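Ticket #4471: structure export looks truncated?
Reporter: QA, pipeline team
Priority: medium

Steps to reproduce: submit the single chain below to the structure queue and open the exported record.
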Amino acid sequence: MSPAPASLEGLRAELRRIGPVVVALSGGADSAFLAKVAHDTLGAPAVLVATALSPSLAADEEADCRSLAAEWGLRWIGVPTDEMDDRRYVANDADRCARCKTALMSALVPLAEGERATVVLGVNVDDLGDHRPGQRAAAERGARFPLVDAGFTKRDIRHWSQALGLRTWDKPAAACLSSRIPYGTPVTLGALGSIARAESALRGLGFGQLRVRHHGTVARIEVDEAALDEVVAQRRAVVAAVVAAGYLYVTLDLEGFRSGSLNRAIDRADAAREGER
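Actual output as written to the record:
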């Protein structure tokens, strides 16, 4: 038997304790759920919903954030961020996410100060085990994670999102486009554009949960294991779509979709260092 979902009232109580909030909305199921519950719990005057606008946010996701705000009556603002001006971010080391969250907080903290509010992010309990330096960077700048404090897992978020009738309840997991680029490979506008075009085209072919991992001229496609056969069945259309996005070679990862799969390089490096001791 599956465990009972975390308490929605517990999340509402946590939001009331925090008070007025600025919610960072990326368009994914987690941040969308948090934005809607905060809006319904605290009221629009006490909730500003902000989306970071940068080349690492796919145009489809930005458009969906705008649509959600209009549908749900959210008080929404798009906020440009400048992580691409940070040479350390562009260099794309293992702390890239920390640079990104630092840029995000630099944009959101002034908004929060003006609102006399606290920045909250849609981090859930399941996010805590992976390599996510951005969480640490955001917390150090004063961000709060009410979903974590209320004990919400990804499953809980999907459960309550469906119960509340939110169309995002089954939205595939999303992440910034830079997360498709292996550590050590510079983040460029060209690479981000190719990734965005390729993923948008593949979604147009009916693939929901997917990643196009960027390896120079090679695109490595990750889809759910159940969809591997369908990629092969649509091989010609898949290849045409990805080549049109700017890649010379198209590969299919037989392990299927794994969130944070590029972190494997970090795990192996850590294991190698441990073995040298």
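Status: closed, not a bug. The export was complete when the record was re-opened. Leaving a note from the reviewer for reference: Strands lie at 21-24, 47-53, 76-80, 118-120, 210-215, 218-223, 249-252.
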